[in-house]
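User: Last request for today: this protein with iron/sulfur cluster, please.
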Amino acid sequence: MIHEPSYIALSKSGKLRETANRLLKNLESCTLCPRQCKVNRLKGEMGICKTGRYASVSSVHAHFGEEPPLVGFNGSGTVFITSCSLMCNFCQNYEVSHLGEGQEVPPVEFAAHILSLQWAGCHNINFVTPTHVIPQIVEAVAIAVEQGLNIPLVYNSSGYDNPETLGLIQGIFDIYMPDLKFFNPELSAETCNAPDYADWAKNTLREMYRQVGDLQVDEQEIAYRGLIVRHLVLPGQLSDTQNILTFIAEEISPLTYTNLMPQFRPCGAVSKHPVLGRRLTKQEFEQAQGYARSLGLRLAE
Ligand code: SF4
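Assistant: Here's the final one, the structure of the complex with iron/sulfur cluster:
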């Protein structure tokens, strides 16, 4: 059975281009994300994400390290966007998110990158860190759909999104894959200058789930719609992890496809941090997994 991505209908009705134009207008006084910088990006002013009118991309390739329902047989078609609006000081992709490694891509070139992944056989287009360039992505997707794009789009974000902006893109992304990083406001203030991370991320997940529901896979176990939540388990933060997992199970859905990640590395500014300046222990990770299982969550293998 073929599952047609929902953006196809939006494209046919002309609403995809309409949405792109509406989102681009927002760049005149940018409130796309919780930072609410209100700078005029169309005139070259830049806010926290240091991105103007056009998106920049650091790499475009089939990725085989993502969650199995995204990777399938031919990989997840990953587009790594340059810069970020959250900018954690322990970021594992520091050069891309903080230092701006990448090339600016006008819309037609951006659309060509997207299509190249589909022609390479990838199962989806996976936009990594899309929050600050949603208008540019939708603009490029509108062009790509007219040239044959027909695989699902994945919105792979930090979870620090603006639900109002997400409401505008309803029907464009069939798969949402946010992080849920921390609920402890002191930790999010210290590491990302975002004491309000938890409040925004909770509402972000509610909106994403409202739009796409639980993860659905086809007869080959490849995802075509739904929510995937990622949580990087941090050293010494088990109670925060437990609060996060409880929230997912009780306030989103106990069937949420959840990827607990053990690969935290104490790089950058946290290398000498009293709590975060070490790797996660095996025991800590097993405790997090055990807790998630006790809640009945659907854990990524
Ligand atoms: S997208 Fe960038 S400029 Fe816009 S509000 Fe967020 S950080 Fe500020």
